[in-house]
Amino acid sequence: MSKEGDTPKCKISASRKLSLKILLLARATEELEAEKAAREEAKVRYLGEKLPPLQLTGLNLDDLLELCKQMHASIDTVDEERYDCEAKVIKNNRDINELNLKVQDLGGKFKKPALRKVRVSADEMMRALFGSRSKESLDLRANLKSVKKEDIKQEKELNMEVGDWRKNVEAMSGMEGRKKMFDA
């Protein structure tokens, strides 16, 4: 009887495991080679369809120039297709990265790095914030907006003119108030 903590012993011998592993690796290499050959065959077939063999014998100068123009046009179309494919791949990669980040955020498995305590003096802080011009901008009061005393006096006068709102309501109530509104 085995204990609960013990794992059951494997019934396959080590030599049998090794032979199975060798057979699996041999099968995998065969499949990789077959896949590689199939890809190469598909490539040759595709190039045969898209790029027929050139017939240059017996062509005069005008025909050669026309052939060159056709080849340049086909090169341009192929370059456009390649550019479009690359743009799609870049966009898809960007989307995949964004989705991976969203998955990580939703999973909550992202660990925040531990922050270290750093002692920084006021001068070093100013130098880091403002760069080399920290001495010039040290006087922060100079950058504040100045308020003139005349502006403050005008605001107080406006507040005094309004006065008590109850007096204005009583003065404008009734027919006398309406008459005053029309006279003014």
SSE inventory with pairings:
Elements: H1 14-50, H2 61-107, H3 122-130, H4 149-162, H5 165-172, H6 174-183
C-alpha Rg, in Å? 43 Å
By secondary-structure content and strand pairing, the structural class works out as mainly alpha
Strand content: under 5%
Number of strands: 0
User: Any idea what the shape is?
Assistant: elongated
Whole-number average pLDDT? 79
Low-confidence stretches: none
- Total number of helices: 6
Structure overview:
The chain is mainly α. It is 68% helix and 0% strand. The chain is built from 6 helices and no strands. The longest helix has 47 residues, at 61-107.
Provide keyphrases for this structure.
single chain, 184 residues, mainly alpha, 68% helix
Care to give the gist of this entry?
Helices cover 68% and strands 0% of the residues. The protein has helices spanning 14-50, 61-107, 122-130, 149-162, 165-172, 174-183.
